[in-house]
Amino acid sequence: MTQPALTISRILHAGYVFACGGTRIAFDPIFENPFSRNCHAFPAVRFDVDGIRRQRFDAVFISHFHDDHCSFDSLDLLDRATPLYIYCLFDELFDMVRQLGFTSVTPLRLDVPVDVGAFQVVPREAMDADVDSMFQVKAAGLNVLNVVDSWIDDTTLAPLVAQGPWDMVLWPFQTMRELEVLAPSRFAAAPPSLPEEWIPQLRALAPRYVVPSSCQFQQEPWSWYNRAFFPISYARFAQEVTAALPATTVVRLDPSVSVALDAVSLQPAPPLDWVLPIGEGNVDYAYQGNAAPPPTSDIARHFAPLTAGQHARVLDFCRIGLPDKYGTVEPASEYFDEPRTWQLSVYDHAGVATHFRYRLEPGGPATPDDGVTPPGWTTEIPAARLWAALEEGESLTSMYLRINDAVFDADTDSALAQADVTDDPLIRCLFSDTFGAYQAAQLRRVLARSGSPGAQLPATDLPNPLPTHLPNK
């Protein structure tokens, strides 16, 4: 007798299509390469846009609002009658999705099942429940846990173990050094091994199969991040998990690849014909610690020149907008409890820097500094990336910020050791009280292409966790 089967297909990153008994649902679909500005599919793929437009999903589930999971450029390819189920605590995102034209948009609630045809999908609590969720997927008597890119702790692990046994777990296998690359001279190189809590957690879940999930991208081909961002290789993940869980099979699913899971086996299935692999598929991450980061002046040369208007926008922000904004953001750590001099260096396409000096008073605005006092904090950024952050919702991971890559006096250096990279004044002014800037910029472009009236975009006065891709939040 034929066993009932569940087909699982990888799109890219955390994107999957699940099919069973004539029902097809998708999770965190991304149909872009690159996505999130500088995330290039690894291994490389291209997408058949017309083929995607012909797809009909019975539902789409989105785990959280980060732009590598909820991208309006990708959602724009879907039929607007597709039911969307989104985990997000901010109403503003749902308003924007409805402005995109979707007619069935439902907020997800933790532990509240959603039944779609042959499937039951249950959002489960992640460690940072203010930001993201994971999914339990049941179909054909099978039980799959899609961790997406969430952290799990003891509080969230116990309920998941109780929901077992698990046939498959989609496990986020990269830790990603998103903050470390912002200040490479102040962080030690991370070891290329799995975090110590992962193996005990996987042992507790005890799945039949585990898929290294939620990554499959690198930055631009020239980027030094490609040698410093990703400590864990596919090979290392498979080696450590197989050694620790001999009854569990590690299964790599590259973009377009499909498998049919039943109660006794896992078999190949026809690939997604609208996800088109390019070149070699058996690629892996090569980690080289901090990898001799190039100066920001060299990085800035990779970006096109700004127009005169764009350049003026950047200068106006640095001279007027930023000083005013600084006085309105939430206080940082104790390091800024006393006056500090901050130097912001903005590099143009030729690698030439314009330096701005500010005096930062606790609880007050930033004021121009006379340049005599040595800086107690430094920030460098390409002008093109600062403009994109101001106008296009550029996220922190693609801005090529360089923080405190300077020589300070001994007292300042000692104090900086206790400060957090995200205390950076520019980061705080750009991100500390905005929500959904990337999606808002996408929505403007989509509506402009369609000739629709301008979007009524949300006010940007909500707290927004720093934009990140994977679970080093």
Automatic annotation (TrEMBL):
Q: Name the keywords, alphabetized.
A: Hydrolase
Where on the tree of life does the source sit, at the highest rank?
Bacteria
Region described as Disordered: 452-473
InterPro entries (UniProt xref): RibonucZ/Hydroxyglut_hydro
State the Gene Ontology terms under molecular function.
Answer: hydrolase activity
Q: Where is the composition biased (Pro residues)?
A: 464-473
This protein's name: MBL fold metallo-hydrolase
